[in-house]
Structures are given as C-alpha cells and as structure tokens.
Specification:
With 289 residues, the protein is an alpha/beta fold. 36% of the residues lie in helices and 21% in strands. The longest helix has 24 residues.
Length: 289
C-alpha cells in the first residue's frame, strides 16, 4: 500500500523517491489499417519527471492514446525508445510488457461487477502475491478511509454513481503502489458538476502520494486545472507542439479557475489546440487506437 501521509510530501521526499521518470525519445508509430500505412506519431520526444502530473491534449487522432498505450505495454512503436527510470521498456524491437509499475485507468471503467468495492480494491495485491486476502482487505480498508471512500467499501459497482466508480478505480490503482498512473480520459463521460468533483478527488489523492501521472484528455479546462505541465500535440503525425507550465500552487483549489493566470493559460492552450483541430478537421482525420 502506498504511504498516505496526512499532508503533501515535501519536495525533498519526492526527489529522493526518484521513481516514475518517463523518457519518450524520438518515438514514431506507423499503423497499417487496411494495408495503408498511417503515420500516427513522428519523432516525438518529451521528458516527464518523477511525481509530475503531465496532461496531454490535442485533436482526435493526434497520438495521445498511442503514446499512452506504448508506455503501458499494449503495443509497440516503429522507431525511437521509451524509458522508465532510465530503463528501456519499449523500442521498435521490444514491446513493453504491462506491469504493476504502470497502471492504466480507462475511460470505460474496469471494476469487477460481481465484487464489492473493497474486494475490487484489494484484488491487486492478492493477484500479484504481495498480500494474502485478509491483509489485502485490511490495506484496502485503510486506503479507502484515507481517500474518503470508506462508506462505499461494501457496495457493488452498479450501486455507485459514475463519479464514485471512477474514484474507486483510482483507489484500486493506487493500492498497487505503481510508479506511473496512466489515465485515459477517465472523466470523459461525466456531467460537468460530477467531473469537477472527480477532478478534485484526483488532486487530493495526488497530493498525498505524488505518483507520476500521464493523463490524456480532450478537455482543455480539465488539463489546466490538473496539470503541472500541459503538452499540446499537433494533428497527425503527432508531435509535441507546445509545452505550457501550469504554475498554480498545490494543494490546488477549484478557485484557480477564476484567476487571471488561469484565463491567460486557457486562452493560450485553446489557441494552440484550435489551430491543430482545424487542420485535423480539414484533413478528415479519424482517431486511431
């Protein structure tokens, strides 16, 4: 179970931990749907620091999910390399294998409908052999309590709102103490109010454990509210077009959305993404997984 302190960890503590550094170096990915080569990502490079919350935005088909899937170990790349903490995990000759050091929270959810939330959260340590069932349940109870979810431990996924299910999925990811959380538009289907609450929950969890988070979204306001940095990708072939440093203090309140600095950054990122979205629309792009 991750160490959930009562307050945010210090910068020194995060630096000494030094886990979860992602290096994406000159990555290119070519798909071959229907026998036609499609250059999805080309010569894409970015360095993500341990404990950084990095959000990637861009038009549909720009390669956001392609990069996430390559980091997760769900597919290969055509050229370049991806490193985790200095260790090469993915090249054109070697596809990264999924592992407990990189856990994905998907758009559509993955809780087991036949299990309670408590048993869902406890599942990871048991299946990985890190804890027996009773110990895993004790750890899960502690984690749910730390994250304000103790009241839903005995409930089943179909008894929960979409926001509660997503919070439970994040808890299930965190109990495995991964080095990296890969979040694939986890709040996409939520209404605006539920999404705002879920985003604040993610920030509270992040402030407690400071895992590296690679988060992809189409929601530019969400990106600015969550991120340390926002990476803007070009339309296909995807490259890093612009990097915005989001300099709001943490812990971060929803009130930053009304600040002058937020509005400045919002204008900047909207302009950058709109330009690429127009190009994608005119080219008739479609999204590739």
């Amino acid at each position: 179970m991750p160490a959930l302190a009562s307050s945010s960890p210090t910068t020194d503590a995060i630096a000494s931990r030094a886990r979860g550094a992602i290096s994406i170096r000159n990555v290119t990915k070519v798909y071959d749907p229907d026998g036609v080569n499609v250059l999805a990502v080309e010569n894409c490079s970015v360095e993500i620091a341990p404990g950084e919350l990095c959000v990637v935005v861009g038009p549909s088909g720009c390669g956001k999910t392609t990069l996430l899937n390559a980091i997760a170990g769900f597919h290969d790349i055509t050229a370049g390399e991806i490193l985790l903490d200095g260790r090469v995990i993915c090249t054109a000759m070697h596809t990264a294998e999924p592992g407990a050091d990189r856990i994905v929270v998907f758009q559509n959810g993955a809780l087991f409908p036949w299990s309670t939330v408590l048993n869902n959260v406890a599942y990871g340590p048991v299946v990985q052999g890190k804890a027996r069932a009773r110990e895993a349940r004790r750890l899960a109870e502690g984690l749910l309590g730390e994250l304000g979810l103790a009241e839903i431990g005995g409930r089943y996924p179909n008894e929960l709102s979409s926001g509660m299910r997503r919070r439970a999925e994040i808890a299930r990811a965190l109990i495995n103490d991964p080095d990296v959380l890969l979040l694939d538009e986890p709040f996409r289907a939520m209404d605006a109010l539920t999404k705002g609450v879920a985003q604040e929950f993610l920030l509270r969890a992040y402030d407690r454990v400071r895992k590296t988070i690679f988060f992809i979204t189409h929601d530019l306001e969400e990106a600015l509210f969550l991120a340390d940095r926002v990476l803007v990708m070009t339309t296909r072939p995807g490259r890093i077009k612009q990097v915005l440093n989001v300099d709001f203090e943490r812990p971060r309140s929803f009130r930053v959305r009304a600040s002058k600095r937020y509005l400045e950054l919002k204008g900047e990122v909207f302009e950058a993404v709109r330009e690429e979205a127009i190009k994608a629309f005119e080219a008739g792009e479609r999204e590739l997984a």
